Amino acid sequence: MKCQHHPNAELETITTKVQQKVPWQEEYIISYTDIEYCTKCFLEHEKGKPMRLDLITDKQDYLEQQVEYYIESQIDKRIH
User: Fold this and answer.
1) How distant is the alpha carbon of residue 16 from its chain centre?
2) I need a surface site. Which of 10, 23, 64, 77 has the fewest CB within 10 A?
């Protein structure tokens, strides 16, 4: 992945925690999500600009996704 606005900027990952109530339980459910963001966009956000999370898939990411999809499809074929 790379930033649409700063293609050469370094990306970082932060883990967010969300607590939410679901109708079928009395307890709160906690879920964690990893969010990748551009460090330059974050610095601009700290100076008052809106936070932009406009990441695009680069060629390397696309190829990795295709390889993962192929491996998963081969595993599914062997299981069934």
Assistant:
1) 11
2) 23
